Amino acid sequence: MALIVQKFGGSSVCDASSIRRVAELIVNTHQAGHSVVVVVSAMGDMTDDLIDMAQQVSPLPPQRELDILLTAGERISMALLAMAIDARGIEARSYTGSQAGLITDDEHGHARIVEVVPRRIAAAIETGAVAIVAGFQGVGKATKDITTLGRGGSDTTAVALAAALKADVCEIYTDVDGVFTADPRVVPNAAKLGFLTYEEMLEMAAGGAKILMPRCVEYARRYNVPLHVRSSFSGLPGTRVGHEREGTDVEAAIISGVAHDRTQAKVTVVGLPDVPGVAASVFEAVATTGVDVDMIVQNVSAVETGMTDISFTLPRVDGIKARVALEEHHEEIGYERLLYDDEIGKLTLVGAGMRSAPGVSAKLFGALRDAQINIEMISTSEIRISVIMRQDQLDTAIRAVHTAFALDSDAGEAVVYGGTGR
Amino acid sequence: MALIVQKFGGSSVCDASSIRRVAELIVNTHQAGHSVVVVVSAMGDMTDDLIDMAQQVSPLPPQRELDILLTAGERISMALLAMAIDARGIEARSYTGSQAGLITDDEHGHARIVEVVPRRIAAAIETGAVAIVAGFQGVGKATKDITTLGRGGSDTTAVALAAALKADVCEIYTDVDGVFTADPRVVPNAAKLGFLTYEEMLEMAAGGAKILMPRCVEYARRYNVPLHVRSSFSGLPGTRVGHEREGTDVEAAIISGVAHDRTQAKVTVVGLPDVPGVAASVFEAVATTGVDVDMIVQNVSAVETGMTDISFTLPRVDGIKARVALEEHHEEIGYERLLYDDEIGKLTLVGAGMRSAPGVSAKLFGALRDAQINIEMISTSEIRISVIMRQDQLDTAIRAVHTAFALDSDAGEAVVYGGTGR
Fold first, then answer.
1. How far apart (Å, rounded) are the C-alpha atoms in residues B182 and B193?
2. Which CATH superfamily includes the segment(s) B3-174?
3. Chain-wide mean pLDDT for chain A?
4. Is the ipTM of this complex over 0.85?
């Protein structure tokens, strides 16, 4: 008799028949004797359709109204899902983010959860009903206006509710079987991972694994919410994410997997005076735009000129913003020129085991050398190594590294249900 | 500088271009120096589409969830309308029924408004913004669940807000130019009425004029809310509804107009013992079903048998319910048999002037006789006369009566924009 939070994304509830299938799955969990709280996203393309409508009436819709418009999507899916469950003889009651007590700050479009007070949800499951909660939305603490949580918002809703309700597990249902040692569309014989620590999952997510947003993994880690990423199509056990491996699994592999990211760009600030505070001036300028910088590399300065270069990567969509900011501060930073490159690809090798295992980086670089891949940037953390290369070499690199670290599965090709599990 | 509540139905906001047109109309009112509160229904067929979806996932959707589903429709239209107004440089903020303080009882699907506390709306117009409110919805006083007001709900929302805000006028925008002396689709040279008293409008509505629901007219009368029924397409002045005609209009016509209704059926309970309490037993039985009975006629009892018959009319959709109830109580009521007839049509002649004008009924019956129309039932109030006839004779009867009371307009054919203004 556990309390289980189940989250279903838009691709799992894209039409009436998939809503009925998801209802079946929820009813089975409930009939197994568990209390079930469900978090659901808007149906399939609903959100895109609503955004299209908005653009037909306004070139730049006010964010407050955009939030009201978009949250209608989850209201529709949550009510339909509750009906489908009710049709199977189990009582279900749906609740908006506001009714579920998801209190956020007042940053429309990308609100942060500041408090979760799920009184009505707790009361509903007390009575044995299934509680359905609209993902992605909350209510502003000060304004009492409807807010949205931004990308990955529904996963975060699920984790936040699981934490507040002290759920035994938060199951994130998606359209793939779990987290793989690499993207099965790039590495056909990638293997599904049975378990990952929060740190490993965070690095995989930060490295580009689309299946979970770093934000929601971070939230789960902070509040000790066990995650289970699994498919709503196959129903197979997926990938569990937690603090420590179970006893049976102490002999964990050194390497968990290879993540990749094709969505970044690289900015190089050339000809900086090699004096204290120069890096600060560069990244203070970038910070004014709210852009998240990922990797940063500073070259040793050329002895004769005393000048240095700084390169950093960032999401390609933010490239313009960052460059404009740097050009505006050209004077005070005092660099020679800017280089911009959006043809890069990032490969990230992740594994808690590399803490205690020497030679991992040597093995990685060796594998890339043998595959004739030129490394442009390197960045490391305790449990990962990321390298930047030409984007058109990325697939080759991923396969080479995957093989070099013996991650290839004997189980043959991994089943992929399409989509990215977003 | 007035406070104006404007209500727009689904046909006025059925797509992006009509939403932009309505926004234009609202902005013009605002720029004329008025405070504007807008009540909006769901876009065009949105409600029907949502009901279709519900039926795809459940044969009998729970009413609580149906309310949540349907209210998503107004959220979408209100947000889009707010965006379209904002795009014209006027601040607009949209509010759900709950945010607007529309507090109802907990009867899902047909909730009654018990209290209106429009604090946020008053605050919004204080700041000079246009407030957009979702029609048709509220929040249950006890359950705090989302409720819907049932048929004509958006009109009632508008009138209730106008009353609570002490608005100068409540403008009901629809797709016809106002209330006519008869349905222009039946009587091409019907004339638009410039003014009607609440009582006349109530009788027209009860008589079948679809343009306003009796419920919302009754609400407006109780709280002295001046109504203005007009077209969102032509922008022409429409029909004003209030307590008394303006001084210029004291010589009001005896007759306001001719309403008709094709949606009723007639039940005749044959062979009732002519003893006290028999009518009570019949209508107590019907009342258990919650069906609204309209006209009631009891024949004088036949001297020899001492038996009598009772006929009554009701909405055709409720015909089965009423018959089942009567059959269940066959014993205690003690009637011989039931007759059911859904081929009837009702014509209603309305006019406050008939209070003081003798001979109106004689003129009415004469006109029907000349048109060879057989009257099956008659029912009268102070300011109306209703008659039941064969449905296929209704149009002929309406034209005959319209002409007999000199209601035909010299202005030629009335413009009709299609739809019933529902």
1. 10
2. Acetylglutamate kinase-like (3.40.1160.10)
3. 90
4. no
